[in-house]
Write a structure and sequence with these properties.
- Chain A: It is a multi-pass membrane protein.
- The complex is a heterodimer.
- By secondary structure, chain A is mainly alpha-helical.
- Chain A contains ten helices and two strands.
- The two termini of chain A are 19 Å apart.
- The radius of gyration of chain B is 26 Å and the shape is elongated.
- The chains are: A mainly alpha, B alpha+beta.
- The interface between A and B is large, with 57 and 52 residues.
Chain lengths: 230, 293
């Protein structure tokens, strides 16, 4: 006979509860992780080219010459996957008046107080991350294309390539900070990583972090008191 | 004497100091444009010594052949017709190639350790086996000299015949020049010789004559005597220097700022976790999520 775990303070849910909510589809998750993988490869190879201290990272790619060849191809792959992914999310990321309130309370939330009410599937921090990533991936793609040897760079005037190289490096570092915040936020907000690896979140997670989304998702269900006690 | 073994003074993409106990005399090539007859013997000698063969192309209706520097043409004679206010039509002949800057933009921009070295005698040499074919050297060069070969994805340029200089020979172009337009030796000797020739030219009525040894790149190890003075007539930049964009992009400041920023992201995350810990609504007592503002 199995023992039902106590509902109070049962902490991190490792197994999918029967009433879990689906937050990310399988296609979304796979695309997300393909983008993430491409990002890691791009970051390692870009860093090796940017700073001699990190040149050893080129060993991950067999040789520095091969790494230099692969970097732009991986970059184009990331951009294609990212924009395919992002194009399905833009509606959920439109900024709402409540997002302004959320951002004002963000510092308090980060230092351990409760989160202000989130209306949509994403909070204002996630939305800003979304729009900034659109900008930075586009910027990195554009400047990276201008530097692409041997295909594009020979047709670009040298001052254009110089400017592109500087901007490419600047974008890459700002993007690193953004991705750093993104990864940390996912680790910090327990349940988010699981949502992106397995797709589901607990109802409490949804009610706590995205109450508006929770209410939308559960709109057609019987009242919560009856369901929770079932 | 100037012609002696070649110690490396600087390597691209290398942070630690190069061995510099021995300091070698700096060498220079002097190109006296006033003595050049455009015979291209230097071009042929460069091909012969370096075992280079340019693809046979088509004439563009000028004497320039090939029309530009390429990965297998490290020096090219350029011919310009110029209408000068006081002298009328002039035919200017410029031997083009790498100027071997004291402060080389190519070396500064190169991300591959040791793919570009500066020898202690001033020669800037590309080490193609370490080249990764990124083309950053081209973005770094203020003179538009390095050329990229699509055949092997490597960059090439004049080596000032570093292999010949290492064993006490002068570069092949110098050896073959029939009019003494080209000279080679210690940089200070070449500078003195250039100044002397400028003096002679001024006596002969070339009042604007000057030596081209631009200080913006710390001086070069290829000097020109320019009879008409203005470098722009000879298609050389008047005041070349490493582009501020390249200087910023490859600066210690930018590189350090980048590395510190990355470290700061990791540290900020680590200490935030240690102070605040994770947010886990599933660990809260039931109803804990209701008391939000």
């Amino acid at each position: 006979m199995s023992v039902t775990p106590p509902r109070h303070g049962h902490a991190f849910a490792a197994e999918r509860p029967p009433d879990a909510l689906q937050r990310y589809s399988e296609a979304s998750r796979l695309t997300h992780w393909a983008v993430a993988l491409a990002y890691v490869l791009l970051f390692c190879s870009g860093l090796a080219l940017f700073h001699p201290f990190f040149f050893w990272l080129s060993g991950l790619f067999g040789s520095a010459a091969l790494m230099r060849v692969l970097h732009p191809f991986i970059g184009v792959a990331l951009a294609v996957l990212f924009f395919a992914y992002a194009s399905r999310l833009w509606r959920e990321n439109l900024l709402l008046p409540s997002d302004r309130r959320w951002l004002r309370g963000m510092l308090g939330y980060m230092t351990g107080r409760d989160e202000l009410r989130v209306e949509g599937k994403y909070n204002a921090g996630q939305k800003l991350m979304y729009w900034s990533m659109i900008g930075f991936v586009a910027g990195l793609l554009a400047t990276g294309l201008l530097l692409w040897r041997p295909y594009v760079a020979p047709a670009i005037p040298v001052d254009g390539r110089r400017l592109a190289a500087v901007l490419h490096a600047v974008f890459a570092f700002v993007m690193f900070v953004g991705i750093g915040v993104h990864v940390y936020a996912a680790l910090w907000t327990r349940g988010s990583m699981r949502a992106m690896t397995q797709g589901w979140v607990t109802r409490r997670w949804a009610r706590y972090h995205h109450p508006g989304w929770y209410e939308r998702e559960t709109a057609g269900e019987p009242p919560p008191d009856r369901r929770e006690s079932a | 004497m100037a012609l002696e073994s070649l110690d490396v003074r600087r390597r691209s993409a290398s942070e630690t100091r190069a061995p510099d106990i021995r300091s070698r005399q700096e060498v220079a090539k002097l190109i006296d444009i006033s003595r050049c007859i455009g015979c291209k013997a230097c071009q042929a000698a460069c091909m012969e010594w370096n075992d280079l063969r340019e693809e046979v192309g088509a004439t563009a209706g000028a004497y320039d052949n090939p029309a530009d520097l390429t990965a297998s043409s490290w020096t090219v004679m350029r011919f310009f017709e110029e209408e000068l206010p006081e002298r009328g039509l002039q035919w200017l002949i410029v031997k083009d190639g790498c100027l071997h800057c004291s402060d080389p933009g190519c070396l500064k921009a190169c991300p591959a350790p040791g793919a570009i070295v500066q020898l202690s005698n001033g020669i800037v040499d590309f080490q193609q086996e370490a080249c990764i074919g990124c083309g950053y050297c081209q973005a770094g060069c203020p003179f538009d000299v390095p050329r990229y070969s699509p055949k092997d994805d490597k960059a090439y340029k004049c080596t000032l015949c570093s292999d010949r200089v290492a064993v006490g020979l002068e570069p092949a172009c110098i050896k073959t020049c029939p009019t003494q337009a080209l000279s080679f030796g210690a940089k200070e000797d070449m500078r003195a010789l250039a100044d002397e020739r400028v003096g002679e030219l001024k006596e002969r009525g070339y009042g604007q004559a000057q030596v081209y040894d631009p200080s913006g790149v710390g001086g070069t190890h290829v000097l020109y005597v320019m009879p008409h003075g203005d470098p722009a007539l000879y298609r050389k930049p008047r005041d070349p220097s490493i582009s501020p964009l390249v200087a910023l992009w490859r600066s210690t400041f930018a590189r350090t700022l980048g590395a510190v920023t990355m470290g700061a992201v990791f540290l900020a995350g680590f200490f935030h976790w240690m102070k605040v810990g994770p947010v886990d609504p599933d660990a809260r007592p039931e109803g804990g999520e209701e008391k939000r503002s």
